[in-house]
Amino acid sequence: MTPSLNAGGLNQTAVRLEGLSHTGCQLYLEEHKLMAHKCSVFLLQ
């Protein structure tokens, strides 16, 4: 990982995703496909 890339943004995203169900995350990804990999990694943790 590259925490120096944009740690604040990633942390904020993690907090946001933490409140979403798996289905909610899927819907979120349809609008933010660039976040797909990060969300997948987050769900696997």
Mean pLDDT: 63
**Strand coverage percent:** under 5%
The number of helical segments is 3
Intertermini distance? 13 Å
Largest beta sheet, briefly? none
Number of domains: 1
Shape label: globular
- Count all strands and give the number: 0
Q: Give Rg in angstroms.
A: 10 Å
Q: Give the H and E element order.
A: HHH
Key attributes of the depicted protein:
mainly alpha; 45 residues; 0% strand; single chain
Written account of the structure:
- The radius of gyration is 10 Å and the shape is globular.
- 0% of the residues are buried.
- The chain has helices at 3-18, 22-31, 36-44.
- It has 45 residues and is mainly alpha-helical.
- It contains three helices and no strands.
- The two termini are 13 Å apart.
- Helices cover 78% and strands 0% of the residues.
- The model has no long low-confidence stretch (mean pLDDT 63).
- The protein has one domain.
